[in-house]
Specification:
By secondary structure, the protein is an alpha/beta fold. Helix content is about 40%, strand content about 15%. The model has no long low-confidence stretch (mean pLDDT about 95). The chain binds NADP nicotinamide-adenine-dinucleotide phosphate.
Length: about 280
């Protein structure tokens, strides 16, 4: 099987390529220099040329706060870019997997969001544009995977684990938001699952994160504990730590559909943090 991965220089795309190669698949990574997904002609040319059996679409504008200042640009990348890929996949009969986000949900309450939920109410520009990407995929294709993930971290790229480790080396005290609930997702673990999924015809919307729910504060405490950093961590509310983009307070994602369809869930998030920090200490 030949699989094209968009955003292959990003944190998830990088690990997906590694996982595909580990399993002996032909993995073809593309990033903005070679195939700018907003350029429909480039998308058509590269996909026709490579002629993959499947596309794992990881490329996106992911800077959530910056997105508030550039709504049109972000919509072009996350919605139009995704539409461009979906149109070519439909025309050439290529299986498509779109990576989406918990931020498509409005995030009230304490329940777990269903995989086939229809009540989308994104709170920020990034979430709205990723949601429009989902709409494009669902409208254009009959056979697709939409996989919503959250709080992503990995060895390659900027993420919360790296930010905390860096701050922990220079600061004695850090305030971290303690009223947003969700699940961290380790790109190494997720890549294994995404490749398990793309090998099948079990199409549809899924959620995929490491097991367990926490707040950003819990996440930070675990990172410092695992790294052996002695940092005073102070829990604060979202109101005390204002960010440009609003974030949902409830990002609990149901993952029942994964097990129902025979996929192996990801390990606990604390275990993932431990392995990620070990991998970072070993140079990636
Ligand atoms: N990070 C998270 O916490 C998170 C949470 C939920 C869902 N997700 C989703 O998970 C997926 C992977 O995220 P990630 O964290 O791996 O993202 P990432 O590290 O930011 O990687 C995204 C990649 O896409 C590239 N890209 C941006 N614009 C492009 C364009 N017009 N054409 C082609 N490539 C372009 C980026 O290049 P540049 O770096 O040069 O811009 C980057 O290499 C995304 O779909 C994201 O929406 C992420």
């Amino acid at each position: 099987m030949k699989i094209l991965v968009t955003g292959s220089k990003g944190q998830l795309g990088f690990d997906v390529i590694n996982e595909l190669e580990k399993r002996g698949y032909t993995a073809r990574g593309t990033d903005v220099e070679e195939m700018d997904i907003t350029d429909s002609a480039a998308v058509k040319e590269v996909l026709s040329d490579v002629s993959p059996d499947a596309v794992i679409h990881c490329a996106a504008w992911t800077a959530v706060d910056l997105a508030e200042d550039e709504p049109e640009k972000v919509m072009t990348v996350n919605a139009l870019g995704t539409k461009n890929i979906a149109l070519v996949c439909e025309a050439l009969g290529i299986k498509m997997m779109y990576i989406s986000t918990d931020y498509v949900f409005g995030g009230g309450g304490t329940h777990f969001w269903d995989e086939d939920e229809s009540g989308f109410a994104p709170l920020n520009v990034y979430g709205r544009t990723k949601y429009e990407g989902e709409v494009a995929v669902k409208t254009i294709l009959e056979k697709y995977f939409i996989v919503r993930i959250s709080w992503v971290f990995g060895v390659n790229g900027k993420n919360f684990v790296k930010t905390m480790l860096n701050l922990g080396k220079t600061r004695e005290e850090i305030s971290v938001v303690n009223d947003q609930f969700g699940s961290p997702t380790y790109t190494y673990d997720l890549s294994r699952l995404l490749v398990d999924m793309i090998e099948t015809e079990k199409y549809g919307c899924y959620h995929a994160t490491n097991e367990g729910v926490c707040t950003w504060y819990d996440f930070a405490v675990e990172i410092f504990k695992t790294a052996g950093l002695n940092v005073k961590t102070v829990p604060v509310t979202s109101g005390q730590y204002p960010a440009k983009a609003k974030r949902p307070s409830n990002s609990r994602l149901s993952k029942e559909k994964l097990t129902r369809n025979g996929f192996t869930p990801l390990p606990a998030w604390q275990d993932a943090v431990k392995r990620c920090i070990e991998a970072m200490n070993n140079g990636g």
